[in-house]
Amino acid sequence: MNYRILLVVSLSLLMSLNLLSQSLSGYTIAELKVQKQKAIENEDYALASKIKKEIEFREAQKNKKATLEEALKKAVREENYEEAAKIKEELDAYNLIQNIDAEIKQAVAEEDFKKAQMLQERKTQLSHTPKSDNTLNKVEPTTKASSLAETKQPTEAKNATAKPNVEQKKKFLALNKRGISLGFNLGSLSFSDPKKVNKVEYTKQIGFFAEINEEHNIKQFHNNFSLNLDMAIGISNLRFKIENPLNEYSLTYLTTAAGIKVKIWGFGVALGYFLDRGLWGTQYQASNDTKYKAFKDDFFKDWNYGVNWKWSYSTKKIAVFFDYKIGIANIEGKDDSGGKEKSRLSALCFGFTYWL
Q: ∠ CA 97-54-125 to the nearest 5 degrees?
């Protein structure tokens, strides 16, 4: 009876050592160092050599996940979404293999060597590494999503791979860039009177604007070819005047704009609309040396809107752009011609954007 017990214990120990020699992935680096020392004490130098190589490989690869995550962030910042998708799949596969390693460790601890061997074979299949006694080959995670889907995975692994796909979709539809824009503009007011009673010509003057811009990626066709949604909100001051008799105008608006932009190699062309709400303004008449409140005294209507063309060139940190806002609203206030007089306010804008 004692011989039978001794035989069972010996066989169990032999299976443990055999599994350890074949699959070392279930152990931490600290545990591997302990196992290496035991192998040396037992004069099993072949196993000690394998463990030594595994430790060296682990230490060389322990920063792999951080490296992949940093590479993913860099690819997103540079709008290289094709590369980002590849890195994301590699990161998902790497995480999946790490989960299997944890299951192997648990199976070994429970002395369920059959399950541990099956998990090791699954890991080998996922990593596209040929099955052999040498488990120290470099594990290269798969870059094909189909191979992951075809492989039977633990429940935890499925959840681990499903969640990043949702996060990637959110990133694709969410904010791409946000920046602060500053620049100057030239206000242009056109006036028409069908009765030909009043003939007025306005002279452009330099104004300014300050905006917060956002860019959202709609569709990425290629690394350097994309369709985007441009949005802006800010303050715009438009100035113009009449030379004779001298009348000077200064109108300040809360300005909003949105448009669809096609961007190729950093160059962008956008078409959209703008909608402005008058905040305050002045009209100075030199003839009586009087300054009026342009909106409050009903010289101009509060709202202005129209079509917005935008040309731009963007880098990683800055962008330069040229806007042409074509006003289509009639902003004429007081009108003695029965509503026949029309004033339309447009603007040429040139500015810089600093991406945050």
A: 35
Bridge-partner residues for 311, per DSSP?
269, 322
Residue for token pair 């539809």: 173
Tens of pLDDT, residue by residue over 13-64, are 444 555 454 556 667 778 888 888 888 888 888 888 888 888 887 777 667 7
Structure tokens of 123? 């890991």
The DSSP secondary structure of 171-193, one letter per residue, reads HHHSEEEEEEEEEEEEEEEEEE-
- 187 neighbors 207 (Cβ within 8 angstroms): yes
Residue 143 and residue 41: Cα distance in Å, rounded? 42
Q: Is 241 helix (H, G, I), strand (E, B) or coil?
A: strand
Do residues 321 and 310 touch, judged by C-beta distance below 8 A? yes
Closest CA to 284 of 242, 249, 319: 249
Find all residues with CB under 8 Å of 31, minimum gap 6, and list them: none
pLDDT at 194 over 80: no
Mean pLDDT estimate for the chain:
77
End-to-end CA distance of the chain: 77
Q: Work out the average pLDDT over 213-217.
A: 91
Amino acid at 122: R
The two structure tokens encoding residue 281: 């303004």
Per the CB < 8 A criterion, the answer to whether 216 and 177 are in contact is: no
Domains of the chain in sequence order: 12-172 (no CATH), 176-355 (2.40.160.20)
Q: Quick one: DSSP state of residue 281?
A: E
Residue 219 pairs in a beta bridge with 227
Residue 340 DSSP label:
-
Residue type, 52: K
- Per the document, the length of the chain is 356
* Residues near 237 by beta carbon (within 8 Å), at least 6 away in sequence: 185, 207, 208, 209, 250, 251, 252, 253
